[in-house]
Amino acid sequence: MNDHWCTQLTTLAQLYKGLQYLSNHNLSKCKIHPILKHRCYSSLDISRIPVKLRLVTGTYVLQTKRIKYYRNETDPTCLLCGAAEENVLHFILQCEKLQSERVALLSEINAIWQNEFQNNENFTDLSEVDQLQLLMDNTIKVKPTKKNSASVARLEGLSRRLMFKLHIKRTKLLESDRDKIQTTMKKRN
Asked: For the residues 170-188, what does the mean pLDDT come to?
């Protein structure tokens, strides 16, 4: 019975666009996916997990998701910068308004990528799709071994932190914009 559902899950996972960044070769019975295996040392670490899982599984609601629900009522353009369509790639790597949250963490990720995985190229020299894949589920690009398990765990921790910080910054900016609009509307009335 378990084998049937594991086979079904891995087969169906390939069909869902929202799961494109999640490695399904790690899905097997009674096993925890590697992105959930890394230890959490505080309640803050634990609170970062749902944001990452929603991004990895495609359930985080960005403007491109919102347009699917509300059809013509929603514009897919990023509400923060207005420069491009707000999708996962734009949210995590491109949005100018979130750049301040990205800089330090991407620098740390680059150090791990170059020094601990012995890569000659910078993390930032990778294509944006490869960068995004490493941040979402690094087990597709980096095979965890006993030798590199600590580095993989650090990389996972930093990616969780990055996504959580981006989520918090996005939420704060959207709330402040909403408050400004409401204040303006009240003044007009």
From this structure: 77
